[in-house]
Each structure stands twice: as C-alpha cells, then as structure tokens.
Amino acid sequence: MTCDEAQILLHALLDNELDAGHAREVEAHIASCPACAAELAAQREMKRVLADTKLSYSAPAGLRARIEASMPQARPQPSRRSVLRGFAMGSAVSALAASGVVAVVLRQDDQQRILSEVVSAHLRSLQAGHLIDVVSTDQHTVKPWFNGKLDVAPPVIDLTAQGFTLVGGRLDYVDARAIGAVVYKRRQHIINLFVSQTASTEHRPPKTQTMQGFNCRRWGERGLNFWAVSDIGGDELTEFVDKFEAAMKVNVEG
Amino acid sequence: MPVSDDFQKAQRFREAALPYLDDVYTLARYLLRDASDAEDAVQECYLRALKHFDSYRGPAMKPWLFAILRNVCNAEYARRAHSHAAIEDTPGAADQTPMWQENEASPETEVLRSRDAGAIRKMIDALAEPFKETFVLREINNLSYREIAEAVGAPVGTVMSRLARARAMLRAAWTAEEEHSK
C-alpha cells in the first residue's frame, strides 16, 4: 500500500467503514510508516475534539411551526356534510358534536371559529386514541418535552393534590398552528388545557362558553392564551381554572 | 369526521420526516452560511419532500431529505451565482490545499487545542465545496459513507477522497490558526 492510498483509507479506518481485510492492510502500512502513523494519530485527535463539541444547530421553533402550518391540517373546515357524517356515525360523541353545529355555522367570527377548533381538538383527542404524546404525572417530565416543539413553553403544573391529576402532554393543531395541550384527569373525565402564544400580555379574566356539550373556559395571562375544555360541569371547570391560576401565580412569584 | 388522504399522508410524513428537522437545518446552515437563508431552504425542502413523499421508497429518510435539501441549496447558489460556486467538484480549490503535509518537526501527535464551537464552526464554514458538505454529512450529521454517497449522488470512493481532503484542510486551518494565535 502506498502512502497516498493510506492517507485516504486511514479515514475509513477511523470511521469504522473498512472491512477486516482492508483494515489489516492499512494497519500494516501504518505500523511501518511513521508519517502515516502520525497522520492517523492527529486525525484521531481531531475527531475526538470535534465529537466533544456541539457543532450541530437546532432548528428555530418558528421554523418548525411554519412547516407544520404548511402541511394539510387535521381538521378540515366544519361543513354541513361533516355534520351529517357525524350523525351517521351515531355515537354519543358525534351526536353532541352535531348539536353544536348551529353555532358553528351561524357564528363564524374568529373567536367562535377558534373555540370550535379547540373543542374539535378536544374531541379528536378522545376519539383517535391520541390523547397523550408524553405520558407522565411528573410536571418536570412533561414541561421539558415541549421544548423545541412549540414557540411557547406551556406552564405545566401538577394539581394532583387539588384533585386534578396531571396525565401528560400532547402537540395539537388549532387555527393551523401547532399548540400545546396539557392533559388532566378528574375522576374519569379528561380536561385538555390548550396553551398558545398571543401578542397581548394583559390579563383577560376567565370566561366560560359551552359548545357541543363541552364546557370551555378561556383566559389570557402573561402573553399566553389558555383554553380548558372538558365535559365536567361548569363549576368544576371553574374550580380547575382557579386552582391552575393560583398555582401559576405561586410558581411565578415563588 | 372526514379525514382526507392528504391529511393521512401528511401525518405519515410528519412522523417520518420531522424528527430530522435539526439535522436538515444543520446541513442547511453549513451549506448556506446564513440563518435566514437556511430557514427558507429547510422549509422549501420539507415542502418538496411532502410533495414527493408518495414516490419515496426508502431506505433511509435522512439521506433522502439531504438530497432534496442539496437541490434547494443548489438553486440558492445559482441565485447567488456571483459569490458562490454550486456544489460541484472544483479542481482548483482542491489543488490549492495539499492532501497532507509531512510533519517534519516530529512524528509526535500534535495536540490540537480545544476550541469553542463557534471557532470550529467558522473553520468548517470556510472549507471549500464539495469537501465541506461531505465533512458535515459525516462528522455532524453522522451519515455512513454509503448514505453520503446516496445523498450527494457520488460513488463511495469519491466520498472517501473528499472526506480525507476535507479533514486535511480542516486540520491545516486549525494548526495555522494556532500558529497565528501563539
């Protein structure tokens, strides 16, 4: 083997890309050639330093969100046809969904549209067996899971002691954007807490609306929009939001 | 709820391709040397990939995405035509740097001083194409030689010689900078 050949093959040796036969040939050459041996050692050293350095980049969260938004979204715009199909499915859930149609069709202003999307996302999470992407009752597991997936860091607060068990988190899509959903359980009822970014940082007090048989309580705080959606009663949902807000206040100030 | 084929396809694509977003973005940053151009290129890459996802037959998603990104970047190079050459063999650039230099002083290993990531990224950025691309695919994106060959559409032998040259150039730049900073 010539030095010219060895100078190329020693890299393949370093990268574990050589078969046993060729590896032996390169090693034999290197054993008898101080120059090539020095080059191998130097390259090994450089490879080691490079491996210890973070040279990769992380994609900005905004880029991820833009790519997500450019793909066909989970929920087509509600139409009368989809409503009828909902009826045809005949499940209790679809019947509930169908009963909310009038509101969907008649009041397509922005707030209402987003509310209907939030409720749809809640329904989807119950139907499709895609309730949770990260299963954990530990807020310190759920919170970091969202890192890099969203352009917001949803507050994840364990409310088990207050009667609402944290069960996990999920990525969802509302208004053609990726949005965080933190999932809680109250007895056998699921509460989806959706969190998205908003330009306004002012506090907007919680307000409950009902759609398709679900209660949805929404509020705004510290540049975030929150929607808590569940089939639990309005007073229980209010209790949930109160406890969440109180705990969030403690977290921020504490 | 009508779930369209488009959505199901997008969902499959999302699961298959989005986990490599950081890898694709990393390659774009090194190839284009500009954060916002890299973002645009990556977004375009994912758009094209979704469009051609039907014809994707494997084997590996990563080299496939990289191959698409390369095409996007080549279009960007063409746009910048005056400042950059496309990712093609440029014999001139290659010949300027000798494959390797005999270390006359001593056969001992020269220990490279650890540098911060920013300084090393700059040195990699300064490598000529197509050597930089091969180097990044191997050393940062962790592709095998065969996968690199697939992504760049060149024989494995070419990949090996480009990689050897890239590493020789990088090491030369590194030691030169250390000399300079002494």
TrEMBL record, chain A:
Residues 3-37 form the Putative zinc-finger domain. It comes from the Bacteria. InterPro entries: Anti_sigma_zinc_sf (IPR041916), Znf_put (IPR027383). It holds the Pfam family zf-HC2. Gene3D superfamilies: Anti-sigma factor, zinc-finger domain (1.10.10.1320). This is Anti-sigma factor.
UniProtKB/TrEMBL annotation, chain B:
It holds the Pfam family Sigma70_r4_2. InterPro entries: RNA_pol_sigma-70-like (IPR039425), RNA_pol_sigma-70_dom (IPR014284), RNA_pol_sigma70_r2 (IPR007627), RNA_pol_sigma70_r4_t2 (IPR013249), RNA_pol_sigma_r2 (IPR013325), RNA_pol_sigma_r3/r4-like (IPR013324), WH-like_DNA-bd_sf (IPR036388). Transmembrane segments: none annotated. Residues 20-80 form the RNA polymerase sigma-70 region domain. Residues 119-170 form the RNA polymerase sigma factor 70 region 4 type domain. Keywords: Sigma factor, Transcription, Transcription regulation. Gene3D superfamilies: 1.10.1740.10, Winged helix-like DNA-binding domain superfamily/Winged helix DNA-binding domain (1.10.10.10). Belongs to the sigma-70 factor family. ECF subfamily. This is Sigma-70 family RNA polymerase sigma factor.
